[in-house]
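Record 1 of the preview.
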Amino acid sequence: VWLCQDVTGDPPAPSGNKKQGTVVSVIGMTAIVADFDLSSLPDGSYKAYVKNLNNNLAGWTSGNPFTVAKFSATIGGFVPDPGYDFYENYYDIPCKITGTGLSSASRVTITDGTVEYDLIGDYTITSDNEIRVQQLNLIGCDNTRNWRVRVYFGTNFYLEREFDVKLGPARIIAANDSKPAISIYRMGWWFTDNWSYETSTQKATAIRSYWWGTARARFVVQGMGFPMNGQTTLRIWKGSWGASANLTCSFNRSTKSVTITSPDWNMPNDSAGDAGISVQRVGDSYVDSYSTRWRLVD
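->
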């Protein structure tokens, strides 16, 4: 396969600008996919020339249907929507890529130069000047690395722009039915150890202690902003009683899960009722605090 400015026979004319391509695949009887390096060809209109090496039959277009032109796309910016930011171990961040010539983009990724994450399914080309990224996933994206967004045009050519990933405030995700934000493993010698989960309609529960026996509970909290290389303070309380610990998170990018797990805490000998919980990244002043997010029960 060739792109040629002039074809008068087989092979293509020795004069004029031309470039041989590499066949990638033959799709049935009517289409051929080929790669061309066009860096040496001047702007202009070109014919296509094809030769079948099995039988030496050749053919070419009667007109010049292919245009070689200077590439003109640009990336002007990559910014989160108002009220959001590019925080480590956050996900579903709405943002946008701005620039020119973006309507011909074939793929969008983010990379630190070593690992590259494809954003397939998470972006929409809304115009020639904007690509919307509806659900940017920064779980596992260390704030100390140099991150860039890449917009591909074709298979291997891309433009890129740097963006900053920062340490953000730790947060507990909202109560929902598919991914429990608060799970409590309840332990005691007078009952069978078991899990209790927060849902959108009910709170997770822990068993209270009695004068004749101590109940324990382990809290598993799903959130965002629990740092990859630091710790998060988890605190629980009911009235004047409380427990806290500085914890290291675990995370899973594919399932969008960022989790901290408490030690096994002794529960108070107190009356049943609502109880509080908070998270705070160690070194950050922001506290995500809830006074009635779980319950102590008989």
